[in-house]
Structure formats: C-alpha cells, structure tokens
Amino acid sequence: MEWNVNVDGVDKKIELPNGSTSEDLLKAFEIHPDGALVLQEGEVLVPVPLKTKLPDADIRIVLVASGG
Fold it and tell me: Using a CB cutoff of 8 Å and minimum separation of 24, what contacts does 65-68 make?
C-alpha cells in the first residue's frame, strides 16, 4: 500500500506492505522511534502508536529532540 507522508515538513510517498506498523514506517525512513511522533493527518492529528497498523490515511512524522 502507498502512503503520503509528511516528514518534518517535507512531503514524500512510500510503499509498504499491508499491515505495516508505525514502527515499520520509521524503519523505512531510517528514523529512530525515540526521536519521532507518527500522527494520522486530519482535522485533528491522531497519534499512531508504534505497534499499531498504519491507518488508510495521510501520515505526518514529527521529529522531536530531547535533552537537558
């Protein structure tokens, strides 16, 4: 299945097998899961947990930073 993904402000397309999870998506983009949020696009952005199957909708990946 193909998804439209906005990765930190840049629009991309990716093809992954049906049943792929948020974790699979991050691996495909070589993004460490501790450094990103996966969100379902819509009027309200909905978090997609790592082990959850990707929705049939556009996706946004927001890169986050942490530290002290």
Answer: 65/35
